[in-house]
């Protein structure tokens, strides 16, 4: 994350006392991430992650996000369980904001994923899709094409140009493109933000999928295209073909894509690229100067849009 909110030692101890997890031993703010405040909590019994929900999260969505974690974890997916408080509540209010305690999972996020790691992630993503289909709650995607266009409008040409002078022109064709309808594609409850920093791994084994706060009911192909756009490019922007094909093979080892999904992947990936340009631009213009957070560059995804536009579906064959 980031740590947007300061919680003192007494506040944390009082908060942790509402859970049957032992006594607080230590609490450290976690610097990774951009959306919420997170602390690594150590108690006399175990380790946990305490999350305070800061941005883009509606209180009404928390039962969906936290319930999905419990549903997937119960089905054997490598997902942290929600720790419920002594009254059975999955989240509590603290200093006017919602907080939840979740299970700590071991592992580290890959910074330069190997093909074998991508294959494992692809397979676990397909397993998550299969396991999430009978989750009984639903949530609409709030980062769809129309939502992105509205946010970009709010950022304004000047705002976008202040991030990089080339950004407005680079995304103009993406903004003009017609939205594709994903409603007829096979659906599940999807992660929708499965970047390497939201996956914990030990070697090639996936030990944790975390940060489900963009999860929604939507097309499984959207999740696969998002994971592809997030995992398969080098720091210099070059496409890593061996990582891309391993991700696809891993996914299809657990769930075969339907031809109509495969045919649309490049178009969906372009929509995904615009979605991350949008949220990154919004965050860039919005982040408080004193927040302990590293801003993410919208230009990376403007370039990925160009890549998918240029290469089309040949990327996914
Ligand atoms: N269940 C977990 N187990 C272990 N570490 C976690 C867990 N959840 C979060 N983290 C750590 O906290 C960091 C930020 O969490 P994340 O949910 O990605 O925050 P944000 O929503 O702000 O992006 C992760 O990069 C990881 O290091
Ligand atoms: N994965 C997104 C950023 C979303 O933030 P997260 O810290 O909640 O994963 C991006 O890379 O733009």
From TrEMBL:
Gene3D superfamilies xrefs: 3.90.1200.10, Phosphorylase Kinase, domain 1
Keywords assigned by UniProt, alphabetized: Amino-acid biosynthesis, ATP-binding, Kinase, Nucleotide-binding, Threonine biosynthesis, Transferase
GO MF annotation terms: ATP binding; homoserine kinase activity
Catalytic reaction equation(s): L-homoserine + ATP = O-phospho-L-homoserine + ADP + H(+)
Superkingdom assignment: Bacteria
GO biological process, one term: threonine biosynthetic process
EC number: 2.7.1.39
A Pfam family it matches: APH
Name the record gives this protein: Homoserine kinase
SUPFAM superfamilies, per database record: Protein kinase-like (PK-like)
Family: Belongs to the pseudomonas-type ThrB family.
Enzyme class: transferase
All residue ranges annotated as the Aminoglycoside phosphotransferase domain in the record: 27-256
Coiled-coil ranges from the UniProt annotation: none
Xref: InterPro entries: Aminoglycoside_PTrfase, Homoserine_kinase_II, Kinase-like_dom_sf, Pseudomonas-type_ThrB
Organism in which the protein naturally occurs: Erythrobacter insulae
UniProt pathway annotation: Amino-acid biosynthesis; L-threonine biosynthesis; L-threonine from L-aspartate: step 4/5
């Amino acid at each position: 994350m980031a740590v947007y909110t300061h919680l003192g030692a007494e506040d944390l101890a009082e908060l942790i006392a509402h859970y049957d997890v032992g006594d607080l031993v230590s609490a450290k703010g976690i610097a990774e991430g951009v959306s919420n405040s997170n602390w690594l909590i150590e108690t006399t019994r175990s380790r946990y992650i305490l999350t305070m929900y800061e941005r883009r999260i509606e209180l009404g969505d928390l039962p969906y996000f936290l319930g999905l974690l419990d549903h997937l974890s119960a089905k054997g997916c490598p997902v942290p369980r929600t720790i419920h408080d002594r009254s059975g509540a999955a989240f509590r209010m603290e200093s006017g904001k919602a907080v939840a305690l979740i299970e700590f999972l071991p592992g580290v996020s890959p910074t330069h994923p190997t093909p074998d790691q991508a294959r494992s992630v692809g397979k676990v993503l397909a397993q998550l899709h299969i396991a999430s289909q009978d989750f009984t709650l639903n949530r609409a995607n709030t980062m769809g094409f129309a939502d992105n266009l509205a946010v970009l409008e709010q950022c304004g040409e000047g705002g976008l140009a202040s991030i990089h002078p080339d950004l407005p022109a680079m995304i103009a064709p993406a903004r003009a493109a017609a939205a594709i309808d994903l409603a007829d594609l096979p659906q599940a409850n999807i992660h929708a933000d499965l970047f390497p920093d939201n996956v914990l791994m030990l070697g090639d084994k996936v030990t944790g999928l975390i940060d489900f706060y963009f999860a929604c009911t939507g097309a499984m192909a959207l999740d696969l295209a998002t994971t592809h756009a997030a995992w398969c490019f080098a720091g210099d922007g070059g496409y890593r073909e061996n990582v891309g094909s391993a991700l696809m093979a891993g996914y299809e080892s657990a769930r075969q894509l339907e031809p109509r999904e495969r045919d649309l992947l490049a178009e969906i990936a372009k929509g995904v690229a615009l979605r991350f340009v949008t949220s990154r631009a919004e965050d860039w213009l919005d982040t408080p100067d004193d927040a302990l957070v590293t801003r993410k560059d919208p230009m990376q995804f403007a370039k990925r849009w160009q890549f998918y536009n240029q290469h089309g579906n040949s990327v996914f064959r």
